[in-house]
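*** Query protein ***
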Amino acid sequence: MASARWRSGPDEHPIRLTTNAAGIMRGLFPLFASLPDRHHMHAGFPTRLPALGALAMWAGVAASAQPWLPPQPPTLDPPAIIRDGDVTPRRSALVAPAAAAATTAYSHGEPTAEEQYMLELVNRARANPAAEGLRLRSTTDPAVLAAYRFFQVDVAAMAAQFATYPARPPLAFNANLIAAARAHSQDMARNNFQGHTGSNGSSMVNRVEAAGYTGWNALAENVYAYAESVFHGHAGFNADWGVPSLGHRMNIMNFSSTGPVYTEVGIGIVPESAPGTGVGPLVVTEDFGRRSGQFFVVGIVFDDANRDGFYGVGEGVGGVTVATSEGNFAITSTSGGYAIPLSGGSGSITVRAEGTALGAVNETVVALAGSNVKVDFIAGTAAAPGVDPNQHGLTGSWYEPATSGQGFEVEVFPDQSGPGSGSIFVSWFTYDTVAGGAERQRWYTLAGTVATGQPSAALTIYQNVGGNFNALPVTNAQAVGTATLRFATCTSGQLTYSFTDGSGRSGSIDLARLTQNVTCSTTSARPTNADFAFSGNWYDPATSGQGLTIDVNPGSGTVFAAWYTYAPTGVGAGAAGQRWYTAQPTSITPGARSIPEKLYQTTGGVFDQAAVPGMQTVAVGTGTLAFQNCSAATLSFTFTGGSSSGSSGTIALKRVGPVPKGCV
């Protein structure tokens, strides 16, 4: 029998009910340190954000939702219920047998564009918590910033907390949960209150079951009756301003290692701006649920009118048929979203979208891992749906021809966290926003996850400073932005970036391969190549925070390398102490494991801009790159010019991450 535990507080502070219930790279990591499995990340963070407490006195007594009212918090301690013994997901009678293909479309309901947008924000946060923490920390939304100030939110601590959270699968809309959430938001708007007990005395459980959501083993609810916008409401729940328990954040992010991981949600957003109201302008309810063993393919079909790679209000494309090779299907709602029940929990399936508004038929293969999976489709891009990013074949050198002289080195670690789920590491060699000498060179690293069936990868941008060339101290990466990387083909892609370091830099870069494609495949086949398998990231553990990304490319007959390091006395110079070099072979023999290289330094460029007068690439030394085996190598070097002129030595290198298949 479930037992209830009451927490003290007025009516605005509802109960929290409990029952007896039986990586990617680290967010702030030393560059080139080995890649931990995502499942080994910490599930929580002990520090709690300072807050002034709930200001329920303002609810229901103000003549109207005037702008001079102080920011309001969500309710304290939102309810969450787990039924006895149901923590581990399992198959259940709720799942149709694999042979029983659906004859009618599954409907996740008719969410409004604003409700769909909030779900996309939630699923983006769950997919990459570290990146979401950075977005919340760096937002310029005036209403959110006002709440941060009022509730004294420590945004740095908040971002650090998000960096420790594990990624969670996406949530699927459920029509019954939407009905329950929307009805409760309407009740709060109509009766001018914020709380988890309805005006008729109903509880969360009463409402969701009355709406038809049964067979559940976990439920939770967030409410916020004072949201200024959809993003403001999302930020309020995740920052959890004024709520020391962080219960709303827990319900969204599921960061506890022992708590439930929700699979379904209903979101109800009701506008309220009538004279005399004390709530609004948006009243928001989120109802979360889980039914053991019931999983979904979820996603959105949208036209991406602003080309930011993310769904926005008004971009949804309705009426598109999305079907799986299991035989189940859905038709996208007016706001563009869909959910399709899965009959199986492992292996892979094909997800196919077709409809006049979409353009040509678009399909992709997605791996199943006993959880929800997300597959989005962008209208007008069906001819190039994107290649599976979960393959080592995308490893290599990439650049934008219009800004030659700067570029990217990519390495993908396929299936690192399990079938269909890998990691990606990107090195970005570029310049300051002002042209200059070597002190204006800049380099960044980007890290995130890739998933079969998801052509886009959400990345966090990092910067390392404070090191010395080939010497101590070890440096640690600091997050400075977010990015989205999408590969349209094996030889083309796009990076959309946004810096949070105060520079205001944001934009999109169209990418092309600098060297030939060797093993990237547009089918499920994964060819290997013994030479190309040496491509990837290499470093000296003694000087972690600097290293090389190497592209061994037999197709182009080259071994191209980018060396990320520092000036000999860069320790106190900040970003101006960064240095990078490139290396190209003076000669190469196919199959060779010792390659003579010439070292170059390029200066005079401007960040993400075409070449400017004075930009030059100069030979500054020689070296020999020798691979002892698939995990160990040495780089012997002699500098005759450039920032490290007069330096020579040999660096013992270790491969970052697992050895790619085919390496011998």
Helices lie at 113-127, 129-138, 142-150, 155-162, 175-191, 204-210, 230-240, 247-253.
